[in-house]
Amino acid sequence: MKRNVLLMGLLITLSFSSGSNPEQNNYKGPIIDMHMHTGLFIKVPEGMPAICRPEPCEGKGGAIVNQAELLKKTLEIMDRYNVQKGFLSGADWKEVQDWKNAAPDRFIASPFILDPKGVDLEKLKAAYEQEQFEGLGEIATQLSGIKPNDPSLEPFFQLAEERNLPVLIHTLGIGPEMPTFRSSAGNPLLLEDVLVKHPKLRLFVENAGFPFTEEMIAMMYQYPQLYVDVSTITWVIPREAFYDHFEALIKAGLEKRIMFGSDQMVWPDKIGAAVEAIDQAPFLNYEQKEDIFYNNAARFLRLNNQ
Ligand SMILES: [Zn+2]
Predict the structure, then answer these.
(1) Distance of CA 41 to CAs 38, 59, 102, 277, Å?
(2) How many CB atoms neighbour CB 257 within 10 A?
(3) Distance 36 CA to ligand 1 centre (A)
(4) 283-296: per-residue pLDDT in tens?
């Protein structure tokens, strides 16, 4: 009897001290979304479920393809989750401008680059002169099978370094199912040539190079200017696979250089899904959440001259 009472007391103490209340750590502060799009670069039918990995799997949510509706819903969800700013790119550069004009304080406009040969560099330089864009990328040339250290990208990195632009690049093992996509063109070690050549380049890597965890850690240890986002992997792969990769980076001590993203494309609900995936990570303390949701991006973007 006495033993039972003792045991009960111990259990009560444990349940109070272990932080088992999931509400306890809920993040309530501002958020910067470092990875947003005005849509997809291929046409998809209205209502199409979100992509998911690994196949076979079932994606949730329905695509919104009408631009006006997608912008409205995106802003609505940004407000709901206190997402104050988004790094925004799109294959249709005019759409990026439209979104920026509709909500100038909310978006950092940036051109999406799929094929470097298809870009008129002089026109792009003029767009920066006219302050139409404040960032570069997503550089999604891996989708065209082009490695990040390919010479065709050199003028873009040079331009970004000269203009001091934040640059988002898709360098990881997974991407859209396209005949030209190459996983082998996504090893983060391929960024080394770029980082050596452009030491002032403000580069951040989509999905923290998933699933090349060790290679990404090596690059981040060696090149302190390199940041990452955790975006699509917050919702496109199983939660445990995301947490394994994410926790490895946290354990490696990199929490000051990981930034939140949603990779919103045509499924704006994924902004909320991405926020919740980070907020529910059992290995993060509140301070780390503040860094990942806001402080790291504010520093990287040099908001308020930080
Ligand atoms: Zn993206």
Answers:
(1) 9, 19, 21, 26
(2) 20
(3) 7
(4) 999 999 999 999 99
CA of 35 to the centre of ligand 1 (A): 6
> Rounded to the nearest 5°, which phi and psi values hold at 263?
55, 40
Average pLDDT estimate for 124-151: 98
- The Å distance, Cα 284 to ligand 1 centre, comes to 25
| H or E element, residue 251 | helix 239-251
CA angle 226, 139, 29 (to 5 degrees): 55
CA angle 125, 129, 130 (to 5 degrees): 120
Ligand 1 centroid vs 21 CA: distance in angstroms? 34
**Class of CATH domain 32-305:** alpha beta
SS3 call for 89: strand
Query: What pLDDT is stored for residue 20 in this prediction?
Result: 43
Q: What percent of the chain has pLDDT over 70?
A: 91
